[in-house]
UniProtKB/TrEMBL annotation:
<dbReference type="Pfam" id="PF14833">
    <property type="entry name" value="NAD_binding_11"/>
</dbReference>
<dbReference type="Pfam" id="PF03446">
    <property type="entry name" value="NAD_binding_2"/>
</dbReference>
<keyword id="KW-0560">Oxidoreductase</keyword>
<dbReference type="InterPro" id="IPR013328">
    <property type="entry name" value="6PGD_dom2"/>
</dbReference>
<feature type="domain" description="6-phosphogluconate dehydrogenase NADP-binding">
    <location>
        <begin position="9"/>
        <end position="168"/>
    </location>
</feature>
<dbReference type="InterPro" id="IPR029154">
    <property type="entry name" value="HIBADH-like_NADP-bd"/>
</dbReference>
<dbReference type="InterPro" id="IPR015815">
    <property type="entry name" value="HIBADH-related"/>
</dbReference>
<dbReference type="InterPro" id="IPR036291">
    <property type="entry name" value="NAD(P)-bd_dom_sf"/>
</dbReference>
<dbReference type="InterPro" id="IPR006115">
    <property type="entry name" value="6PGDH_NADP-bd"/>
</dbReference>
<comment type="similarity">
    <text>Belongs to the HIBADH-related family.</text>
</comment>
<dbReference type="InterPro" id="IPR006398">
    <property type="entry name" value="Tartro_sem_red"/>
</dbReference>
<dbReference type="GO" id="GO:0008679">
    <property type="term" value="F:2-hydroxy-3-oxopropionate reductase activity"/>
</dbReference>
<protein>
    <submittedName>
        <fullName>2-hydroxy-3-oxopropionate reductase</fullName>
        <ecNumber>1.1.1.60</ecNumber>
    </submittedName>
</protein>
<keyword id="KW-0520">NAD</keyword>
<dbReference type="InterPro" id="IPR002204">
    <property type="entry name" value="3-OH-isobutyrate_DH-rel_CS"/>
</dbReference>
<dbReference type="InterPro" id="IPR008927">
    <property type="entry name" value="6-PGluconate_DH-like_C_sf"/>
</dbReference>
<feature type="domain" description="3-hydroxyisobutyrate dehydrogenase-like NAD-binding">
    <location>
        <begin position="171"/>
        <end position="289"/>
    </location>
</feature>
Length: 302
């Protein structure tokens, strides 16, 4: 069976920066969506937008064909999915669990094995694109799991993103997401260093970033982040706290397979330092603030 709006009930767990717009896009696509998250007011807002709300996991999952989880990290997935009263206890046999959180590949493998033991299909399907990509339904979705399960879930993914790829068996989506976060973090750090270098050199920063983005130095990172960097606006689309968590996943996963990630390890330390300096709640483009501090500037000065 293919999960289309006319035959599918979805339980969506986690209405954070990414989860809330994703759940709303499923509503817009015509799916019957029941949402649950710890913050009651976010559930109430979702209900006002035409969705259904639940007071707990069991209530949300009851009667669902598909459960989507979008929570911060591996411990949260374990709590929501594996522990007593969690998804696997309440989802019917034959249902599908799609975890779209960014967690360790090993946790995704454990979830898939536990799901299989209960007759439940599972996909790990982390996303890239940030808050803007979630709102615009243009996320890149990297998926791990069985081909048949992926094919059945494809219409759901198409309501959320534009680039949707099955990357291999369970855990593969998370491995590719870790690589994504490695590339993004190193890219943002390079942009941050260029920005401070340009500013200190007295160059017209707006003009410089425009011409750089038109050449080989151009990137999605620069396209999406340059205006907010120019404005000094670091309202989070993706928090430093979360990128810190993801860089831990990258370095651990790389170590486990014997891959060297020297640039990634350095940026992981810079992200950790920025978080220790109190900037964990800011957008990851706030790496600019860390470079300014290293360059002897106060990032909060006029």
């Amino acid at each position: 069976m293919t999960y289309t709006p006319d035959n599918t009930k979805i339980a969506f767990i986690g209405l954070g920066i990414m989860g809330a717009p994703m759940a709303r896009n499923l509503l817009k696509a015509g799916y019957d969506v029941t949402a649950y998250t710890l913050e009651t007011e976010k559930v109430e807002e979702f209900v006002k937008d035409g969705g259904k709300g639940a007071a707990g996991i069991a209530e949300a999952v009851k009667g669902a064909d598909v459960v989507i989880t979008m929570v911060p990290a591996s411990p949260h997935v374990e709590q929501v999915v594996l522990h007593e009263g969690g998804v696997l206890e309440n989802l019917r046999e034959g249902g599908t669990l799609i975890d779209m959180s960014s967690i360790t590949p090993q946790t995704s493998i454990e979830v898939a094995e536990a799901a299989k033991a209960k007759g439940i299909k599972a996909l790990d399907a982390p996303v890239s694109g940030g808050e803007a990509g979630a709102i615009e339904a243009v996320l890149s979705i990297m998926v791990g799991g069985e081909q048949e399960t992926f094919d059945a879930a494809k219409p759901i993914f198409e309501a959320l993103g534009k680039t949707i790829v099955l990357c291999g068996p369970a855990g593969s989506g998370q491995t590719v997401k870790a690589a994504n976060q490695l590339i993004v973090a190193v890219n943002i750090q390079a942009v941050a260093e260029a920005v401070v270098f340009l500013e200190k050199s007295g160059v017209d920063l707006k003009a410089a970033l425009e011409v750089l983005n038109g050449g080989l130095a151009g990137s999605t990172v620069l396209t999406r982040k340059k205006d907010s960097i120019l404005a000094g606006n670091y309202q989070p689309g993706f928090k430093i706290d979360l990128h810190h968590k993801d860089m831990g996943i990258v370095t651990d996963a790389a170590r486990s397979v014997g891959a060297a990630v020297p640039a990634g390890a350095l940026v992981a330390q810079l992200v950790a330092a920025l978080r220790a300096q109190g900037d964990g709640g800011l957008d990851h483009s706030a790496l600019v603030r860390g470079v300014k501090r290293l360059s002897g500037e106060n990032p909060d000065a006029g």
